[in-house]
User: Fold this.
Amino acid sequence: VVSEPIHVPALDGGWLLAVVTLGREGVSALAILRAVDLASGPVALARLDRPIPITFHGSWRAAS
Assistant:
């Protein structure tokens, strides 16, 4: 299951970040994809320490 992705702007088209839930494994991960080449799949998949509930909603903001 894939959460709502967010776009991180960059000169080359940017990135999409999405939390994915790997149901059979019971873990969550952060998927990082090139916004201009989604068909190639994630360039990185970082497993998270804890599962994120599928119904969880949130947003990212700058630290400053």
Q: What stands out?
A: The CA atoms of residues 5 and 18 lie 4 Å apart. The mean pLDDT is 88. The longest strand covers residues 15-22. The two ends are 31 Å apart (CA to CA).
